[in-house]
């Protein structure tokens, strides 16, 4: 029953998280586009009001004319829309999902004993430390170097190095699937912290200065924009890290830390193309196509590098090693008896009589038959199970299950 309710919590939190993330990223992308597409106002009245840029757009059968005041408008409107709940809701739902999916069952999903044989409490503390330490170091980099000459380039380079170090540590300390998600959540935490500690407080300060009739300090707008731009470059790397848990060939690779770095770098490069293309159309910067080409080239290079090596046929060979559950005489067959021997040794620990994780028992032929396709997908195709390969299933045993499924998944004698 506990597993059943955890599955519901996982589903509902994931649903909420995706919805709020769409709202946050959508508004972020829109405002980056808007800021990059503004042109100097042509109307003299707008110029007198202090408008620094305008944009005409058509959408949904109507015309829109947003304008931007460089520092402050001449008068505050009665209703001012804020963009912050999208960020906060995304982080809160994401952290809750991370807690339910990984922290609550740290010994199963977070810890890989072949890397670090931590106690669950230790693994949880170290994982949470990634969030706080990364934010403190990233924020310090922005404070120290952000306002210097070539500050954006310096900050970008240092943050990239910081992400690389964090990726290497996460992939060497935690289970691969959890490591990728942890790095994505770490960066997403910095994104939401940018909103909470810099963007919104700066905007509140500007509004307070306007209401008090004081001169508005433009530094608040500059800092807010800097952190907002950082957030937009973080989005595609974070999305890759979040989606990767569905594709085991990424986080199960022997150099999974490098896979993560390459794909996040590719995402940031491609995002640079989309950010600069609006300015390119207005003649403000050069053609950003090389950034997109670099990103695509990195992805293609990763695909070629990670391609699986041809495997020798194992259909007729017995499984090597004394720990194998397959009798030598039956290892090349498609019969259920051979498959049952593998399930007993590799799967009953979590899906047997004593424990039924995900409400699934594999010690019953009827249940095995009912869930044959899921077993095939999880064990053979995606190689997600056993989790972190805790029971050391072999490639030959996976191949046996694959042949059994392709033969119609028989469970009879």
The residue fraction in helices comes out at 55-70%
Oligomer: single chain
| Unreliable sequence segments | 313-332
| Total of helices | 16
Strand order of the largest sheet: 1-4
Strand content: under 5%
Number of strands: 4
Structural class by sheet pairing and helices: mainly alpha
- The backbone outline, from C-alpha atoms, is elongated
The rounded distance between the terminal residues' Cα atoms is 33 Å
Nearest-integer average pLDDT: 87
Tell me the series of helices and strands, N- to C-terminal. Answer: HHEEEEHHHHHHHHHHHHHH
Largest sheet: 2 strands, antiparallel
Rg over C-alpha atoms, rounded to the nearest angstrom: 26 Å
Would you mind describing this structure in some detail?
Helix content is about 65%, strand content about 5%. The chain has 16 helices and 4 strands. It has helices spanning about 1-35, 45-50, 85-105, 105-110, 120-145, 150-175, 175-210, 220-245, 250, 255-280, 290-305, 335-345, 350, 365-370, 370-380, 395-405; strands at about 50-55, 55-60, 60-65, 65-70. Strands 1-4 form a two-stranded antiparallel sheet. Strands 2-3 form a two-stranded antiparallel ribbon. The longest helix is centred in the N-terminal third of the chain and has 36 residues, at about 1-35. The two termini are about 35 Å apart. The relative contact order is 0.08.
